[in-house]
Amino acid sequence: MNYPQYRILWRFHILCTVLLLTIGLGGIISSSCDHQATVQPPPSKTSVQSAQPQRPVIPAPELTTLAPAPYSPNPTPQSSTLQQPAPAKSSTPRSEPAVKPSAYQANQMAALALPPKPAQPPPRVPIRVAIAQPSPYLVIGASTPATVVDQQGQLIKKLVAASAKNFVIQGGQLRIDSQNAPDVVWIKPESEIGLVYVSGRWYRGAVQVIANNGKLLGVNHIDMESYLYSVVGSEMPASWPIEALKSQAIAARSYALAHIARPANPFYDLGDTPRWQAYRGVETETGSTLAAVEETAGIVLSYNGAVVESLYAASDQIVREVHKGFGMSQHGANQLARQQYNFQQILAHFYPGTRLAWLQFSS
Questions:
Q1: Whole-number Å distance between alpha carbons of 11 and 48
Q2: Each residue of 19-48: pLDDT tens digit?
Q3: Averaged over 193-216, what is the pLDDT?
Q4: pLDDT above 70 coverage of the chain, percent
Q5: Distance between CA 158 and CA 314 in Å, rounded?
Q6: What's the distance, CA 284 to chain centroid?
Q7: Average pLDDT, whole number, for the chain?
Q8: What is the bridge-based pairing of β-strands 164-170 and 173-176?
Q9: What 3 state SS string does the chain have?
Q10: What is the C-alpha to C-alpha distance for residues 363 and 346, in angstroms, rounded to an integer?
Q11: Cβ neighbours around 237 below 10 Å, total
Q12: What phi and psi, each to the nearest 5 degrees, are found at residue 61?
């Protein structure tokens, strides 16, 4: 089958560290990609009141974690909250094939065979996600004690657990409540399980607040796999079969790598809306989305040693109209998974001619 004209990456650099794709003998990732058409329009922006906001009472976050035991047919994901325990979110049981795979399915799996797993674990690739578009103010807090520091790491302010501060622009100056602050600050939880609250949502990792042109921009700095925990649950219902979710995890990982190579903005790699990939912080994490990401950690779609910008959309019609027929239909992936296709067969169906590869740091 002739390989369709996918957009592939030719210059790929992450913090000056070259990543190596292990595909048989392997190859160096390098790439850059053109801007893609919008799959869905971004949600309409809500108007922001000009008055100083009131400090809210921050709700307790829920942080879903993987169970330490191997994935079982009826997993019970661990869940922890920082005030009162909350019930764990349900995860989708792994569906076992009821019938022998068809010849087509067997060919699809052979076409997208996974190379042997490298001895070293996959890299934790950093990514920058804009989670608050330019606004006059942001309400920010943390689930555990946290620090606000400047670009040099100097302490600006300490945040008490489960309390919020108003970050506002007044006279062109960033202020945290009544205290002046530099134009760029970082909010960093002091605990590894700490989450940062930004105007209604909780996020893993650290948050950078940037004062620019009289507005504030919030950017979540997080590693790729933790980012995908939320993306998979934001882009697909967590109740869908695990093989569909795993296909989504690999497609989303490859797509995100393309935007690290070609950032949307000097301050961030991509946004958090369907204009890029939907990302809603920990609220869309479940046991099944974490399992889908962890079971495919480090796996990307590749062609000739380069990462494929794996476009996808909700339906076959959108894929045809927006991506000229090249890309994954999410509803189509769900249907194939319910017919006992695994993630390799699903991806081979939607991305013919590609290969699976392991993302690795070069030695």
A1: 39
A2: 444 443 333 233 333 333 333 333 343 333
A3: 94
A4: 70
A5: 43
A6: 11
A7: 77
A8: antiparallel
A9: CCCCCCCECECCCECCECEEEECCCCEECECCCCCCCCCCCCCCCCCCCCCCCCCCCCCCCEEEECCCCCCCCCCCCEEEECCCCCCCCCCCCCCCCCCCCCHHHHHHHHHCCCCCCCCCCCCCCEEEEEEEEEECEEEEEECCCEEEECCCCCEEEEECCCCEEEEEEECCEEEECCEECCCEEEEEECCCCCCEEECCEEECCEEEEEEECCEEEEEEEEEHHHHHHHHHHHHCCCCCCHHHHHHHHHHHHHHHHHHHHCCCECCECEECCCCCCCCCHHHHCCHHHHHHHHCCCCEEEEECCEEECCCEECCHHHHHHHHCCCCEEHHHHHHHHHCCCCHHHHHHHHCCCCEEEEEEECC
A10: 32
A11: 15
A12: -80, 160
Residue 354 has which token pair?
């590609």
Structure tokens at 147: 């620090």
Tokens 């067997």 found at: 106
Please say whether the beta carbons of 134 and 141 come within 8 A.
Answer: no
pTM of the full structure: 0.77
Cα distance between residue 5 and residue 2, in whole Å: 9
Cα dihedral sign for 344, 349, 351, 355? positive
pLDDT digits (tens, 9 = 90+) for 231-255: 999 999 999 999 999 999 999 999 9
The long-range contacts involving 113-120, CB below 8 angstroms and separated by at least 24 positions, are 113/344, 113/356, 114/299, 114/344, 114/356, 115/22, 115/23, 115/24, 115/356, 115/357, 115/358, 117/358, 118/22, 118/358, 118/360, 120/360, 120/361
Cα separation, 174 vs 183, in Å, equals: 6
Which residue type does 230 have? Answer: S
Q: Residue holding tokens 């607040």?
A: 209
* Beta strands across the sheet bearing 164-170: 179-180, 173-176, 164-170, 137-142, 196-198, 201-203
pLDDT at 310 over 90: no
φ and ψ at residue 343, rounded to 5 degrees? -65, -35
